[in-house]
Amino acid sequence: MVVIKSENDIRIAINSIRLLAKSLDFSNVDMQKIIVAVSELTQNILDHSGTIGIVKFEAIGTRGIRIVVEDRGKGIDQLERILQGHKVYSQKGLGLGLLGAKRLMDEFTIDTSKEGTKIIAVKWKGKKFG
Ligand SMILES: Nc1ncnc2c1ncn2[C@@H]1O[C@H](COP(=O)(O)OP(=O)(O)OP(=O)(O)O)[C@@H](O)[C@H]1O
Ligand SMILES: [Mg+2]
Fold first, then answer.
1. Is the pLDDT of residue 130 over 60?
2. Would residue 36 count as lying in a domain?
3. For the CA of 94, the nearest ligand
4. Would you list the DSSP string of 87-108?
5. Could you tell me if residue 130 is inside a domain?
6. Which residues form the domain of 30?
7. What does pLDDT average to over the chain?
8. CATH number of the domain where residue 108 is located
9. Residues with CB in 5 Å of ion ligand 2
10. Which atom of ligand 1 is nearest to the CA of 71?
11. What pLDDT, on a 0 to 100 scale, did the predictor assign at position 126?
12. How many domains does the chain have?
């Protein structure tokens, strides 16, 4: 588990996830997808939650990685619209990170309320080319 309270914590989390993906023999493409998704979700904690958060990750056997990103912040407003691909502009970015992260992962569940946000994402090992 890594506590996310600064950009440096995001780097620390990503380095650990990279090592886990490597140890499970994930392809570089899958590893990049996981890294981008985790970067976006953890950056959202810093940009939007109004508080700090955590990221946890674990192997699912030898074929998958489960990532949990959680904060006790203000929750995601207009989640429906965001997931439908409507850009919900903020001062902080383009409004594409959350949906992008969802598309990069194989399973993606979001639980958000005024008490905070918990996202559980899974990536399964794909075929390895080259
Ligand atoms: N952890 C969170 N807590 C509260 N609100 C969030 C959280 N994550 C996302 N949001 C809300 O969802 C919106 C969409 O997030 P998304 O990552 O897609 O876009 P963005 O962060 O605004 O821009 P980008 O990621 O493209 O830089 C954000 O603008 C913010 O309002
Ligand atoms: Mg974002």
1. no
2. yes
3. 1
4. ----SSS-S-HHHHHHHHSSEE
5. no
6. 2-124
7. 93
8. 3.30.565.10
9. 44, 93, 97
10. 1
11. 84
12. 1
